[in-house]
Amino acid sequence: MKAAVLVFPGINRERDMARTLRLVSGREPAMVWHADKDLPAGTDLVVIPGGFSYGDYLRCGALAARSPIMEAVRSHAGNGGLVLGVCNGFQILCEAGLLPGVLMRNENLRFICRDVYLRVERSDTPFTRGYNAGQVVRVPVAHGEGNYIADGATIAKLEGEGRVLFRYSSPDGMIDPNWNHNGAINAIAGIVNEGGNVLGMMPHPENHVEAAIGPTDGRGLFAGLVEVLDRAA
Amino acid sequence: MLGQVVETGFAAKTAMKARVTVTLKSGILDPQGKAIEGALRSLGLAGVSSVRQGKVFDIEIEGGDPAQAEALLKQAADKLLANTVIENYRVDVLG
What we know:
The complex is a heterodimer. Chain A has a single domain (3-232), classed as 3-Layer(aba) Sandwich (Rossmann fold), CATH 3.40.50.880. Chain A has five helices and eleven strands, in the order βαββαβαββββαβββα. Chain A has helices spanning 14-25, 69-78, 88-95, 152-160, 219-232, and strands at residues 3-7, 30-33, 45-48, 82-86, 102-104, 112-120, 136-143, 147-149, 164-169, 188-192, 198-201. In chain A, strands 2-1-3-4-11-10-9-6-7 form a nine-stranded mixed β-sheet, sandwiched between helices. In chain A, strands 5-8 form a two-stranded antiparallel sheet. In chain A, α1 packs across α5. The mean pLDDT of chain A is 97. By secondary structure, chain B is an alpha+beta fold. Chain B has one domain (12-93): Phosphoribosylformylglycinamidine synthase subunit PurS (Mth169, Chain: A, 2-Layer Sandwich). In chain B, 41% of the residues lie in helices and 27% in strands. Chain B is built from three helices and three strands. Chain B has helices at 2-12, 31-42, 66-81; strands spanning 15-24, 54-62, 87-93. Chain B is elongated, with a radius of gyration of 19 Å. The mean pLDDT of chain B is 88. The A-B interface holds A 58-59, 62, 66, 95, 100-102, 104-109, 149-151 and B 28-29, 31-32, 35, 79-81, 83, 85-86.
């Protein structure tokens, strides 16, 4: 795995992400500054971490989505390269048009920082092969704008094509408004693009990977990616 | 001499003022607008039936052609100022 973690002004989760990539893949990721025009040669995974790029000015992710490095990310994704956007990274991917829809203000207007449960909808993708379909994982969220919305046709398409990979659920996998903390349509926590190679998700799997700290449910996502990429290499 | 240079530079440059207003599309839930609406009610301001919040951008444009300015600002709104998935915008060139 040759991962590149993008760094924008105001991002604050890039070191957690780099630590997890190093821990799970055994390889140091490249840190790539937003003003760069190119990804390091041989990059096979681009990760856009969480935080508050540009202080969330204008709209969350709006300014980062127009920064120079995003052209390189667009062509990487266009060539089928894997892209993972977490939290602000998900917002940036939506603003860049690499994923449909928008992350709106949480329904209850509060910043929510706690563990949530996610139901993994399918396991036959590079991002979820480390899990079983229907498995419930516990990972943290930390966001004020995670309420996913899109127009009816887009939602129907996402659902019809099986592009919702993660949904907020109860600990036993039931989809219920009480467990959909931010009010997202259909409890959507993570979606992929049409090609299945770009994933955006609000929760932070990178923060639950070490037993010394707590649950390790986030590890499966990265372990699955390592398996796919190291086999391809 | 210095005065002359400054004056020439100033005279050659015309500018227009414009305003881009960005509002949420109808049907898009606006929790911030709802909260403001609630706050207005709690201030005792009777008669407020609903609030939708948006953004205003006051922009100065070089040049003197209003049609050109409007085209430029439409591009700016489509590319950055508005997210047209959830927002509408309106461009007013004020001259």
